[in-house]
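Deliverable D4.2, example record:
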Amino acid sequence: MSRRTNLVDLDPSANPSLQRLQALSATYVDTMNTRLERAASYKALLTASPETTAHAFQPGLIGTMRSEVLKLERDYEAQLKVYKPDWPPMVALKGELDRSKQHLAAAVKQAVAAARQSAYAAYEAALARSGSSEPRSTSSNRRSWIRAPWAPNSAHWARRSRAAAKCSTSF
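Output generated by the structure prediction step:
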């Protein structure tokens, strides 16, 4: 059959060009999978609640601080049943409770920022790695569906273009 149609059956193990093509294809698929996993991880961190993200990133610290705040809240509520809120020890307990809440909020904010920065750096590393093996036709679109939270979005550019149009027509 192959002689009649001028087709040649190639044995993959005997053809070095085919082996290199298979290796390149496997590398490309691996880098694309890694990039997509990292992008999905980063997107998930952007949409997750700050408490969940912070607890996942620093479980011991956030858990301990949260239990301390809950203990202080229970103590305050129990003391509030006996004493008035303006009694000096109650004011001191309320101040300690507020400071603990602020400290927890700051720790959560810091943990979330560190987690997001780490995930974005991992995504950028995977993107850089996949950029060398990515076909030219898709390389220009590879960043179009994910962006850093500080990057301007399309609404930003629409406002800028409307402002520019308004300025140019006023002259």
